[in-house]
Write a structure and sequence with these properties.
Helix content: 10-25%
Number of strands: 24
Largest sheet: 5 strands, mixed
Strand order of the largest sheet: 5-4-13-8-9
Bound molecules: the ligand Nc1nc2c(c(=O)[nH]1)N[C@H]1C(S)=C(S)[C@@H](COP(=O)(O)O)O[C@H]1N2, molybdenum atom
Strand content: 25-35%
Length: 419
């Protein structure tokens, strides 16, 4: 990394490795082979890190690509265990050997360089607790594309393509300093080592500000699903920007029309003749009551804690209001420490259910004064009609509408928006 020459050599070496890595890709199903001699294979024995056999497991569902959903209704606090972290993958998970792994930073730089895991671990490290939320989280698309009746409408499926972890790695600004970014540079294009070459670009100002190349997740190496051995992590932006199994970062002076970003993830604007709204970055303020929530049941009137999560890609959560009468009146919930920027914030609210029908919901206000909208406000903002909102179209990206849950007299709970 230190001299121009060794940098070039590393770059060439890693270019050759990148070719090899493609051939070395293995099918995810090959990992499913059971070794009956291993701890965990017999009842009463566990391999270290395995969840209890009888614990509820996150369910795997398939939409256009593989998605695992985080079971939010079971959570307290803000940290998602790595084993329950959601996953979005557009192709098979590549299996990368950390001993031979490297990624390249090239393009408009003084010294194109390859960085190995050893290099990353030598460099200044940082960790931060931040949420990660797919731009497609929540909205009618989730249910419609999976078949209306095939997915239980629970908070796991309406809001579970998100999580909050402590991510550890090297600030991207440190790496960009190593390569020496040229004056005319303004964008960064990140490519993954998976079969689809998943690629996304972000403005260089964001890259310099608070992004990192992450290799740790809650203190352990990244899980295979999360991009082992290293991923880009872009705080506050849609998780789609956080490219996993990082293969290269190219510095450019213009944005790139990558398929994932400009075609697959673009959001059409009904009010603009369905032209695309492209380059959506920051998650606006959002919140959801995780318990009680759809699919659960209140067995008798009496005390229930209302608990949930609030977050904003713009900064910290300033307050969360809760309504137990369908939005007629609101009261402020208690925010639990820590309240961190661009992180899930846990809110709690004491409630006594009187056994009558009730609609409960939460509303987040962030430290910029931005307030989470109702569905009607969100629709107005994006020029959608009531009818549009139930169509399985991608204009629901960055959906942050207030989520009401209806509690019936018998205590059963359903989703008000899509049920
Ligand atoms: N290389 C690569 N990076 C990727 C993806 C992918 O398919 N390949 N999916 C993206 C999308 S759409 C999301 S929502 C996040 C999901 O991160 P996770 O699977 O670690 O939860 O990864 C992003 N980074
Ligand atoms: Mo995503």
């Amino acid at each position: 990394m230190n001299s121009k020459q060794s940098g070039r050599r590393r770059f060439l070496k890693s270019a050759a490795l990148a070719g090899l890595a493609l051939g070395a890709e293995r099918s995810a199903s090959a990992q499913g082979v059971t070794d009956t001699s291993a701890p965990g294979a017999q009842p009463g024995t566990y391999a270290h890190g395995q969840p209890a056999r009888l614990a509820a497991r996150a369910v795997t569902r398939t939409i256009t690509h593989t998605t695992y959903y985080t079971p939010l209704a079971d959570s307290v606090g803000i940290i998602t265990p790595a084993s329950l972290h959601f996953m979005q993958s557009h192709s098979r998970l590549p299996e990368i050997d950390p001993a031979t792994y490297s990624f390249v930073i090239h393009g408009l730089v003084e010294r194109p360089l390859a960085f190995t895991m050893e290099d990353l671990k030598r460099l200044p490290s940082v960790s931060m607790i931040r949420f990660l939320e797919c731009l497609g989280n929540t909205g009618p698309r989730r249910h419609a594309s999976e078949g209306k009746n095939s997915t239980p409408v629970t908070v796991q499926y309406t809001h579970g393509i998100m999580s909050c972890n402590e991510w550890g790695g090297v600030p991207l600004s440190v790496l960009l300093k190593e390569v020496g970014v040229k004056k005319e540079a303004s964008w960064l294009v990140a490519e993954g080592a998976d079969g689809s070459k998943y690629t996304y670009c972000i403005p260089l100002t964001k890259a310099m500000d608070d992004c990192m190349v992450a290799y740790l997740q809650n203190g352990e190496p990244l899980r295979q699903e999360q991009g082992f051995p290293a991923r880009l992590f872009v705080p506050g932006f849609g998780a789609n920007h956080s490219v996993k199994w990082l293969r290269r970062l190219m510095i450019t002076d213009e944005p790139y029309m990558t398929w994932d970003q400009s075609v697959h993830h673009a959001a059409s604007r009904v009010d603009l003749g369905n032209n695309s709204r492209w380059f959506n970055f920051v998650w606006p303020p959002k919140s959801v009551i995780t318990r009680p929530s759809a699919g659960l049941k209140l067995n008798a009137p009496g005390y229930y804690e209302i608990t949930g999560l609030a977050w904003s890609g713009w900064g910290k959560v300033r307050k969360v209001d809760v309504s137990v009468d369908g939005g007629k009146s609101w009261k402020e919930a208690k925010l639990q420490d820590p309240i961190l920027p661009m992180a899930h914030t846990r809110f709690n609210f004491d409630w006594t259910w009187n056994g009558e029908e009730a609609v409960i919901m939460s509303r987040c206000t962030d430290d910029q004064g931005e307030v989470q909208p109702t569905l009607a406000e969100l629709n107005r903002h994006w020029g959608r009609t009531e009818k549009d909102r139930l169509e399985p179209i991608s204009n629901t990206h960055y959906w942050n509408a207030i989520q009401p849950w209806k509690i019936a007299k018998d205590g059963s709970i359903t989703d008000v928006l899509f049920a």
